[in-house]
């Protein structure tokens, strides 16, 4: 019954779309004349991420918003129960899911950093030895490891796309949402204090970026104090410190404003796409936690920045011609000590002790070996030949390690590669998120999920778990006549954003899409 209703509902949506595109045709079901003013296509898509923005920041601080959050909450389509359906809930995974609709199983972006078995070294989601940094020194970055297309890529391929540009403090957060065919992606370099890019995009930085850097924009923050945090004097120390203050987001906002005018975004005949990811809430959140006065202030400030960005975009493209999609790349875990104070569970775990216990058990069972190629909080990649010459059953090796870790305190679940590959996982949210987050070529051999609120982290807080505090994020759409404003309580996934944008833009759905179109908000 429900399926039949859905089919009818989808059918209505299709005919509504057809009407707006062929304005003269009468509705074939009712015979009523079609609307005469079809929605004009967006001239600019603003795809906005705030890094580590828990959903409840919107509800906790709502009465204080005056900028972008106020406007989006009042005039947008607001999804109050959007979650990441994949783990780990980290920056690269969130930013790649946002505009591809693909989770790590298909996108190949399995974490911020992982072990590349083909070259036997650890890589980041965007590291690319073939490229050089432009505007700074060293190796550049590119979207090469992203296996699928983004909305921006599909816009370009369709012929309807103009410029596609990504901006953030972090390379992965600028590069992954923008995609393969982007005209440029820009991020902040803590060594030089410049916004940089890579030779993947062009052979030298565009003039407007060089001009922006030439003014040494970060230097004006030298010596400033914010809520007891004093900025160092100009130089690499300052450039590394601005990240974890409101000044980092101010710097990237200024660059985004420059991009709007210098690249004439929203001013051309085709649809441009600008992705902006505000990073500083994440750095401050890691240090001070989601319940800190610092985060409260950061959220109020990013509200104003987003409001100004939307207004500047509309000043160029016209009101009603800027389509905004807003989300976060993950949430955050409460600081364990704060949680304990309010009688909630939680604590800190040292991953090294879990790893050491696994290695000890493996030595006892199989003989002394060099077991691990790579390991980081909760994950293990085994060496291809741990005891040279001894042919080991690797499924058994995985099981011994997993059983050992599982028997230690505060461990929720431990998964092995062989279990995941043979489909042995259950269907609850935690198992589903682990399955969607696993890519056979790039995923680990053992994967550990601690109990809720327990962190493999010695200070501050972090994110990465498949639990609600890390998966629940805002999703808001604003600015198209085809969007029905309001609050939507249905449970949705962040992977639903990309196919919905593709539908609004009438371009092909990105190639790895695992989501659905949010038809409930479409007129
Ligand atoms: Zn992040
Ligand atoms: Zn983070």
Structure description:
By secondary structure, this protein is an alpha/beta fold. It folds into two domains: 44-333 and 478-521, Alkaline Phosphatase, subunit A, CATH 3.40.720.10; 347-455, Gyrase A, domain 2 (2-Layer Sandwich). Helix content is 36%, strand content 21%. The chain has helices at residues 2-21, 56-60, 68-75, 91-100, 104-107, 151-158, 171-178, 207-214, 236-241, 246-262, 280-288, 293-317, 336-341, 351-366, 394-406, 417-421, 429-436, 468-471, 497-505; strands at residues 44-50, 77-83, 113-116, 121-124, 127-134, 139-141, 161-168, 184-188, 195-198, 225-226, 229-230, 271-278, 322-328, 347-348, 372-376, 379-382, 411-416, 446-450, 454-455, 472-478, 486-493. Helix 4 packs parallel to helix 7, helix 4 packs parallel to helix 19 and helix 10 packs parallel to helix 12 (293-317). Mean pLDDT is 94; it is low at 1-25 and 33-37. The site of one zinc ion has 6 residues, from loops.
